């Protein structure tokens, strides 16, 4: 069961996989991953921020793109909202260069953020997809080197914003919650992604409550997987720290000691690097055996 | 009321005969004196008062001496019985002081252990509370008060990476069916999805969802091009909040802007050049305006004027001609007007 829970380093397809995490050699082609869900409010932006920072923590070069044209949130979660001066729209218009629009996180120099547009600016429908493709091409041969990962935070829905965000992607992470409305939208989005040619789709089940699953008030992760038929990248338990981290602009994975959700995000990031998936899931919480010194908190 | 702690002290320090109520029975008065300044709870004052009254009544009758004697003896016996009972009660109380003196060493150890336990628990509670409150949530308050810049929120030094799978917070149970994360124990269950089931789901979705990426974007009223697949046409509603004309944007220019790595961005450069040109134009215009016409030099170019009354009137009637717009040179203006007038005048003459 340990092998089922922990990633199988021996059978990993990643050529640079080792027992100890090491930054792989810089690749010429970045892995462009779109994080989508269909339904809003399930945790796409939170997942993008935390998985992105976990990847940067691992020593990988990451560029995150907030592809929501009208409503921008990723900068708030990362605590970088005061540093966004230029967006991709300004780059397209010639008001600035691409490197001037990229916001580098001062905490990790290998993590950068790019917002597509400011709230009141417009991007022509049908043009955004091309712009993102040009963006990926431009990032490949920049002076700092090609990034290892480009994470695109997709807006909710299946409208123009969704079409724009999935254009340059060759992998997808589908974020869903264990409720029926989210599952139906997730299934639809998965179908659209497959129609667009994206076949590597993995799932993160967010806001899982083991107590409700035990009381049969919530679908289990295995039920969700049975309904959607997607490989599991991660299972994130419900955690009140998520709200605190959002309001503070301090992502969850940076907390010391790590919270349960933070650990789960880190593990999901590592599985993304290794192109692996979960082989076992955590079911219900068992009562912990308390020893003699439990009275003293041991 | 005497407590258990004080009672035995008095029982030890004073002889029992003194630790009783003293009654001084005189001929007509019964005095009740409590000894040693403390009271026994079971000696009811009311009972004493009634007893006093009874004895007083008993003694006040002078006639029945024998009876009084008998009563007196009876009273003395009762009092002795009561004193005896008191002594028995006192003797039956556990000599705690003796016990304490004998076992003071172990009691000290017990007390010490209890104190240590309380100390450990309070320290643990304090540490837990402090760690709970040590989140940088107060950073937000500092940002709100303007004492900290929001772009410098979070930690200033990078964290050392911890492998999430070798993290001490993650412990897999010995039987490999449980895992402990962050102090909570969870039961593990294997994933049951197979490759065949995944393929079945993919087929189901391909049948259910038919979608093609839109490549042609048309507005209401635009004709559909003949060689375009209708499934790839996307209609832009006229009231769409983010709809702009596609022809407004030069795609090649936009692409070049994205690929630009060095130098000044295109629009900034264009604006700068436009500003430069405007500045140069303004400067040349100002130079042109500063040019002054020398009247003395203009006279050299004038033709000699013939004195004619009507020509003088024409000149006087059009004073505004000289004031409008850029003033032409007199040599250009006057000959024309004068020449035309003179021609008109001269013709009738001839």
From TrEMBL, chain A:
It comes from the Eukaryota. ATP binds at residues 39-46. One of its GO terms (biological process) is cell division. CDD domains: MinD. Gene3D superfamilies: P-loop containing nucleotide triphosphate hydrolases. ATPase required for the correct placement of the division site. This is Putative septum site-determining protein MinD.
From TrEMBL, chain B:
Residues 337-350 have a biased composition (Polar residues). GO terms for cellular component: chloroplast inner membrane. The chain crosses the membrane at residues 108-127. Residues 295-350 are annotated as: Disordered. This is Multiple chloroplast division site 1. It comes from Actinidia rufa. The keyword Transcription does not apply. GO terms for biological process: chloroplast fission. Residues 295-316 have a biased composition (Basic and acidic residues). It comes from the Eukaryota. The keyword Membrane applies. Keywords: Membrane, Transmembrane, Transmembrane helix.
């Amino acid at each position: 069961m340990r092998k089922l829970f922990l990633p199988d380093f021996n059978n990993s397809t990643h050529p640079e996989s080792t027992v100890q995490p090491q930054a792989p050699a810089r690749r010429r082609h970045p892995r462009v991953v779109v994080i989508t869900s269909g339904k809003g409010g399930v945790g796409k932006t939170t997942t993008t921020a935390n998985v992105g920072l976990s990847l940067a923590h691992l020593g990988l070069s990451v560029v995150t793109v907030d592809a929501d044209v009208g409503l921008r949130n990723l900068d708030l979660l990362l605590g970088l909202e005061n540093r966004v001066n230029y967006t991709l729209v300004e780059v397209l218009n010639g008001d600035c260069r691409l490197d001037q629009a990229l916001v580098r996180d001062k905490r990790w120099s290998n993590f950068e953020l790019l917002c597509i547009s400011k709230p009141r600016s417009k991007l022509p429908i049908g043009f955004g997809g091309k712009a993102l493709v040009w963006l990926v091409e431009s990032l490949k041969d920049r002076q700092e080197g090609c990034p290892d990962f480009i994470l695109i935070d997709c807006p909710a829905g299946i409208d123009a914003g969704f079409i724009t965000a999935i254009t340059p992607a060759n992998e997808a992470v589908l974020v869903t919650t264990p409720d029926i409305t989210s599952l139906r939208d997730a299934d639809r989005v998965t179908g659209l992604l497959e129609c667009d040619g994206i076949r590597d789709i993995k799932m993160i089940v967010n806001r899982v409550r083991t107590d409700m699953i035990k009381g049969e008030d919530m679908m289990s992760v295995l039920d969700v997987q049975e309904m959607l038929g997607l490989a599991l990248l991660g299972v994130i338990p419900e955690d009140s720290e998520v709200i605190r981290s959002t309001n503070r602009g301090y992502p969850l994975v940076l907390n010391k000691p790590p919270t349960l959700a933070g650990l789960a995000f880190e593990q999901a990031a590592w599985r993304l690097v290794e192109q692996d998936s979960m082989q076992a899931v955590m079911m219900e919480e068992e009562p912990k055996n308390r020893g003699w010194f439990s009275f003293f908190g041991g | 009321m005497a407590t258990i702690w004080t009672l035995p002290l008095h029982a030890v320090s004073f002889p029992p005969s003194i630790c009783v109520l003293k009654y001084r029975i005189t001929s007509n008065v019964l005095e009740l004196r409590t000894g040693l300044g403390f009271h026994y709870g079971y000696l009811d004052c009311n009972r004493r008062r009634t007893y006093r009254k009874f004895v007083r009544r008993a003694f006040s009758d002078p006639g029945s001496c024998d009876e009084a004697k008998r009563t007196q003896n009876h009273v003395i016996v009762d009092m002795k019985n009561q004193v005896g009972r008191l002594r028995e009660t006192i003797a039956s109380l556990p000599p705690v002081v003796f016990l304490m003196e004998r076992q003071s060493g172990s009691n000290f150890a017990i007390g010490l252990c209890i104190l240590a336990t309380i100390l450990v628990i309070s320290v643990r509670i304090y540490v837990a509370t402090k760690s709970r409150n040590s989140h940088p949530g107060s950073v937000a308050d500092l940002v709100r008060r303007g004492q900290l810049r929001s772009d410098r929120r979070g930690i200033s030094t990078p964290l050392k990476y911890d492998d999430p799978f070798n993290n001490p917070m993650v412990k897999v149970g010995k039987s490999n069916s449980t895992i402990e994360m962050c102090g909570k124990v969870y039961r593990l269950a294997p994933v049951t999805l197979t490759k065949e089931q995944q393929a079945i789901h993919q087929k189901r979705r391909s049948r259910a969802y038919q979608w093609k990426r839109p490549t042609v974007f048309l507005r209401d009223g635009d004709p559909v091009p003949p060689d375009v697949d209708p499934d790839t046409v996307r209609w832009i509603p006229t009231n769409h909040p983010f709809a702009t004309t596609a022809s407004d944007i030069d795609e090649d220019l936009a692409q070049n802007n994205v690929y630009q790595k060095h130098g000044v961005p295109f629009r900034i450069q264009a604006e700068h050049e436009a500003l430069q040109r405007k500045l140069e134009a303004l400067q040349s215009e100002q130079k042109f305006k500063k040019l002054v016409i020398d009247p003395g030099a203009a006279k050299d170019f004038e033709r000699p004027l013939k004195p004619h009354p009507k020509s003088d009137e024409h000149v006087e009637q059009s004073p505004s001609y000289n004031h409008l717009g850029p003033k032409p040179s007199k040599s250009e203006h006057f000959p024309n007007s004068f020449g035309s007038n003179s021609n008109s005048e001269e013709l009738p003459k001839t």
